[in-house]
Specification:
The structure is a single chain. With about 325 residues, the chain is α/β, with parallel strands linked by helices. The strands form 3 sheets. It has a 7-stranded mixed sheet, with helices on both faces. Strands 8-10-9 form a 3-stranded mixed sheet. It has helices at about 20-30, 50-70, 75-80, 85-95, 105-110, 125-130, 140-150, 165-170, 190-200, 235-240, 280-290; strands at about 5, 15, 155-160, 180-185, 205-210, 220-225, 250-255, 255, 260-265, 270-280, 290-300, 320-325. Helix 10 links the parallel strand 6 (about 220-225) and strand 7 (about 250-255). The longest helix has 20 residues, at about 50-70.
Length: about 325
Amino acid sequence: MTASKELTGGEPELTQTGEDIRASLKDADERNQKPKPLVPDLEPATGISLSKRLRVHQVRFCSQLIRNTSHLPAISAFFKSIRDVPVFRNVVNGIIGYNRPFPTLQQAKAYIADYDGGGHGHPFCAINLMKTVQNANPSDYAALFFLQPILPAVRTVFDFGGSVGNLWYCYSNYISMPADLTWTVFDVPENVQLGEQIAKDAGENRLRFTSFLCDGDGADVFIATGALHYFEESLPAMLSEYHSKPRYVLINRTPFSSGAPFATVQDAGRYRVACMLYNQDQLIEEFRGVGYDLVDRWSAAERTHIIPCYPDLSVNAYSGMFLKLRD
């Protein structure tokens, strides 16, 4: 990531080095004494039959076994050589089940319909995220690097797929949020309801929650952290529908394809979700087409997505990027 960069249009200049800002954020973290937001202690049921649970265990065991041995060139070459042969394709797909590529997001969703355990609506999804908000991921420092200098002039943030506001609570530990800031979280109704309760218990009145994408129209900053890949429609296409596009777009922890876009499935243990892997360069071109210029991009190496039998399609590191609306 570029250490020093000027944002045109009168915005503040980023003059701190990477070491400076990491040090300042670390100091802020050490000084911070804010109470943790209340996290409900729930143990929701999976809603999956015994036979389906056994199938999930089989798929997870076999997939992990293949992942653990795929670093061996002979094993990797073997699976690559047989996976596309018609006579062996069904055998391979039967072994790895939903842990494989699909042409579209809808096909991936249809395949796991009986195995998803509730998907993003599963309460453990939000709860698990909330239990980790006190510590930033390595890729968050890149996001904070760009967010910190513009934040004083920002009045509205739209947090796309922001669960129950976990990003707000995390970033509040590292940077000072303006008193008049409105941070709107967009997510599924189950998470909206839970997020509202957590914010109420935490006494946080700057957080808003919605299940309507149109509420992002006119926001100063549009954030998509760990969410972009769950939608088949690309983000540039979504933003093109807005009357007033966000001035800044911050994307983080997103898996990208190095080739043609495709869909696959993320297995989180208690639930599974289909996801879409876009081609990053194509996505940047789409952004340019709707008026955005790339400021910088970075690697989010703390996240990977390894697809068993498909090392050529696996993602060894997620990515992030920061874009600005062209003047």
